[in-house]
Design a protein that fits this description.
Helices cover 69% and strands 0% of the residues. It contains nine helices and no strands. Helix 2 packs antiparallel against helix 5. The longest helix has 21 residues.
């Protein structure tokens, strides 16, 4: 993963957001959809790279992303491009999560479904690790959910062997 200094990171964020705004002026619904898609791709790309040491597995990650998230056939090439760009952009996923909250401040259901989908994606190519759990917790908190919500949704995705029946109750 390429490290980018904080000044470059801010420049990258501003450039991307201005680009989205300029391309879709006057087409607000389309702009929101494009922004949503980009932010989700960026979060997923960063999630997949949490435990990855080499970008060699990016193609497999993109394929898993396409299987889990519904992508129109006409947009598949853009997904590849956005995904690969997000892997190396140096912007933390919590920034993108906060942008999603800004886009959909009153649509908690959509954001809850996104968390579920991201957890499925986290486990798609390799097992859930403590690094992925930590990453997802940061994203979930950035989406303005609390730790209790995170614990509940995480339990839906992790099978615990020999669970303590008293804790379950």
């Amino acid at each position: 993963i390429v490290d980018i200094n904080k000044g470059q990171r801010s420049k990258t964020i501003s450039k991307r957001e201005q680009s989205i705004d300029k391309k879709f002026v006057g087409r607000n619904d389309n702009a929101v959809q494009i922004a949503f898609t980009f932010y989700v791709i960026a979060i997923a790309a960063k999630l997949a790279r949490v435990d990855a040491n080499s970008p060699a597995g990016i193609e497999s990650e993109v394929d898993s992303f396409k299987e889990i998230f519904s992508i129109p056939a006409s947009e598949l090439d853009k997904v590849d491009e956005f995904y690969k760009e997000a892997v190396k952009d140096g912007v933390h996923a919590t920034h993108y999560a906060k942008q999603l909250v800004n886009l959909f401040p009153n649509n908690r259901l959509l954001l809850e479904e996104l968390v579920d989908d991201l957890l499925v994606f986290a486990d798609a190519d390799s097992s859930m690790t403590s690094g992925k759990v930590k990453f997802m917790k940061e994203v979930v908190l950035a989406l303005n959910f609390n730790e209790r919500f995170f614990g509940r949704v995480l339990r839906k995705h992790i099978i615990v062997s020999n669970p303590n029946p008293f804790i379950l109750l």
